[in-house]
């Protein structure tokens, strides 16, 4: 089975991890510090806090922003559930704004219609690898004193209007799962423009520990002392994962080039084909294509999905609208809430896309799909 996504591991990656195993640190140590500095460097120079997954990054980000009971988080339904569930777990009311049907990205006009005094975060998702319209979303957030969050699980390495992912929203979350644009095994990061939020993110992911003596409330202990002012969790990345991530970062441009090449081959093959619709790229965006979200029209998506899988082509669907999940449906969210997202979902089919995919593999995907829709 040709997978729809997979990691790209080199001998250099393996040696980087082996070097950590030969050293003194396994968990959070110098490799984590170096990795966070490297992520900062490709994200506009803002402080980065690494963590154990993209889901952990979202939990950390919402906690750093102080999200709690009574707050509203406006987000897109066209995403993995964690974008919404991590806010809900902190007590927020999740409000779903519809998407732009052409791109799958959250629609600023839909967001505008949902803003209230309780809106605290507008959380966009860089679906498939291209950035949302953050200038429009930031303008809306500023009207009500909210913050913007970029769920950049798909878009690390991309840019918009000359600014890198990580520099487009108040706070950005990243995922380094094996199928993502680079991997630490499991892992993620939070990038914060405001140092106050960055420090809160760091402490939340570090069990809430405060180690700055100037902030201690207990002042008569020795140099070993540390204390907790707010609850936190252990979401710390290991040096093993960070070493892999550092090695992967050296090939980020190469990964982007190959993903762009494959996307262009798919676009050329499927443009104008009856029953198919190729992805639409926003003006000013230089995507790091993580998915190739083809649209299969005419109600044939499931048929084509099953026949592609039967032919050994590991296609995928990304994503079921978040509020269809029973955990949200049981809270009163109903189908029909975001018509564009539901229509998009009914048509979306992700084709294989990863750097190690060969031209022959791409041709196989193209030929198989064309034979099925013809």
Automatic annotation (TrEMBL):
Source taxon at top rank: Bacteria
Coiled coil (residue ranges): none
* One Pfam family per UniProt: DegT_DnrJ_EryC1
The record's GO molecular-function terms, alphabetically, read: pyridoxal phosphate binding; transaminase activity
> Active-site positions, per UniProt?
180 (proton acceptor)
This protein's record includes keyword Transmembrane: no
InterPro entries on file = DegT/StrS_aminotransferase, PseC, PyrdxlP-dep_Trfase, PyrdxlP-dep_Trfase_major, PyrdxlP-dep_Trfase_small
Cofactor(s) the protein requires to work:
pyridoxal 5'-phosphate
Database matches in SUPFAM superfamilies: PLP-dependent transferases
Q: Does the keyword Secreted apply?
A: no
Q: Which UniProt keywords apply?
A: Pyridoxal phosphate
Q: Which residues carry this modification: N6-(pyridoxal phosphate)lysine?
A: 180
Name a single GO biological process: polysaccharide biosynthetic process
Q: Which PANTHER family match?
A: DTDP-4-AMINO-4,6-DIDEOXYGALACTOSE TRANSAMINASE, TRANSAMINASE
What protein family is recorded?
Belongs to the DegT/DnrJ/EryC1 family.
The protein's name is: UDP-4-amino-4, 6-dideoxy-N-acetyl-beta-L-altrosamine transaminase
Source species of the chain: Kribbella jejuensis
């Amino acid at each position: 089975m040709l997978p729809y996504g997979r990691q790209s591991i080199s001998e250099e990656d393996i040696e980087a991890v082996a070097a950590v195993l030969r050293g003194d640190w396994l968990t959070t140590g110098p490799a984590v510090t170096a990795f966070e500095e490297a992520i900062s460097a490709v994200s506009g120079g803002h402080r980065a806090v690494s963590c154990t997954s993209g889901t952990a990054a979202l939990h950390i980000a919402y906690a750093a922003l102080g999200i709690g009971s009574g707050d509203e988080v406006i987000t897109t339904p066209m995403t993995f559930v964690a974008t919404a569930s991590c806010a809900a777990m902190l007590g927020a009311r999740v409000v779903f704004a519809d998407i732009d049907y052409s791109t799958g990205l959250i629609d600023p006009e839909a967001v505008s219609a949902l803003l209230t005094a309780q809106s605290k975060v507008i959380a966009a998702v860089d679906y498939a690898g291209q950035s949302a319209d953050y200038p429009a979303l930031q303008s809306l957030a500023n009207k009500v004193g909210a913050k913007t969050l970029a769920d950049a699980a798909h878009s690390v390495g991309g840019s918009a209007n000359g600014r890198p992912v990580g520099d487009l929203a108040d706070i950005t979350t990243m995922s380094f799962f094996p199928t993502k644009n680079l991997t630490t095994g499991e892992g993620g990061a939070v990038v914060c423009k405001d140092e106050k939020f960055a420090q809160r993110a760091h402490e939340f992911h570090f069990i809430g520990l405060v180690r700055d003596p100037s902030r201690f409330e207990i002042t008569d202990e020795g140099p070993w002392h540390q204390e907790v002012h707010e609850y936190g969790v252990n979401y710390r990345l290991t040096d093993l994962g960070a070493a892999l991530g550092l090695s992967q970062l050296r090939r980020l441009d190469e990964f982007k080039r190959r993903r762009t090449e494959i996307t262009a081959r798919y676009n050329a093959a499927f443009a104008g084909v009856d029953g198919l619709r190729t992805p639409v790229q926003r003006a000013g965006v230089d995507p790091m294509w993580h998915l190739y979200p083809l649209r299969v029209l005419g109600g044939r998506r499931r048929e084509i999905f099953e026949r592609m899988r039967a032919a050994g082509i590991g296609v995928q669907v990304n994503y079921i609208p978040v509020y269809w999940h029973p955990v949200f449906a049981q809270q009163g969210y109903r189908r029909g809430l975001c018509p564009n997202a539901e229509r998009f979902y009914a048509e979306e089919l992700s084709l294989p896309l990863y750097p190690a995919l060969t031209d022959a593999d791409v041709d196989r995907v193209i030929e198989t799909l064309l034979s099925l829709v013809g």
